[in-house]
Amino acid sequence: MAESFDPFQDELQFPLGTNFETLLLSLQDHVVHHLFSFFTVDTVLILSKVSHVVQEVCRSYTCEAWNIYGLSHEWFPDPIGFQAAMHVSNAVISGSLALQYFNRERYPGCDMDVYLRVAGADLLGRWFKGQGYRKSLDSESYYICNSTTPAIRLIESSSVENMCRLRNGILEVRNYIKFLVRTDHTVRKMQVQMIIVDIEPIHHILFEYHSTALMNFITSREAVCLFPRSTLVDRISYIAHSEGNSLLAPKGWVKKYSARGYQVVGRRQHGHVPEPVYGKRFVTDELCWTVHFNLNVVKGRGIYRKLDLTVPFEVLHPDSGTVSGSAFLRVAEPLVWQ
Asked: Which domain of life is it from (predicted)?
């Protein structure tokens, strides 16, 4: 596992040298890893530049802390097979689990949200069943809005209710559930939520998510955090979409991410929090943090063409006249908003 870009460019704020190296080498690996777990992500990456000795220690830690197999194995007996299934179906993991992965945290009751297009859904669903999951039988009706016509189509699915808004792009949501008995005899409900979208999953994450802390995803080959400085260091989530003009009555997601230590900021906070970098960007650019997986099991192409990891986008300031409601900024497709 290696980091292709380092968006954290700060200088070290404390002296390091031979004594620090000696300390690291004198400690057992699990003690060093526990120590590093208290460091912010930028500190870990900066430490890796101190010396070859510290770099090797950091490499050992990062291989454990951001081990994709460790994440997958919690959910599936065959984590290698899961990476292959993701590749073939062109699926990506996003939502709270991707944030948990980057933050090295655990969120109680967190589902696995898997985004993909329709052609890969049945294939991946069969693979989930082969791993002991069952498709939820609690069928719910929900509506899909078509932005090109006023017609509303009713879909019956083993799903949760989709509170549809125009342009959200969600075609269907399927839940796959498994119950695991822990060593302490408690039972854990494992729920994989398959979210079928009408565009490339990465486009959906960029242009439909409500705030920047959620704009992270994991593919079969890499993990990408689009706003690493604000998300992983400053613990700020900039609102990118809003309904209404006020945050006086926070929605459920605002409360959820506030409880996880995030400052959810909207238009009112301009001038009171660090500003993001505005302007034209693309996925996996130098402002992203990309973790590559050293996997040999993922070969060939998937059902669709290869996932595009250079998707262009633009981060727009409220003064651009394109940011609505209480949002702090807008993440938009270049030229489309003009």
From this structure: Eukaryota
| Structural domain includes residue 254 | yes
Sheet holding 312-316, edge to edge: 279-282, 312-316, 330-332
3-state DSSP percent of the chain in helix, strand and coil, to 5: 30, 25, 45
Is the same domain home to 74 and 207? Answer: yes
Residue 230 is given by DSSP the state: I
- pLDDT per position as a tens digit, 43-87: 998 898 888 889 999 999 999 999 999 999 999 999 999 999 999
List, for residues 261-278, the tens digit of each pLDDT value.
999 999 887 778 999 999
Q: Range of 238's domain?
A: 69-332
Burial class for 111, CB neighbours closer than 10 Å (0-12, 13-18, 19+) = middle
Domain boundary among 46, 65, 84: 65
- Name the pTM for this structure: 0.84
Backbone angles phi, psi at 100, to 5 degrees: -60, -40
| Total domain count, the chain | 2
* 123 shares its domain with 236: yes
Contact 198, 304 (CB under 8 A): no
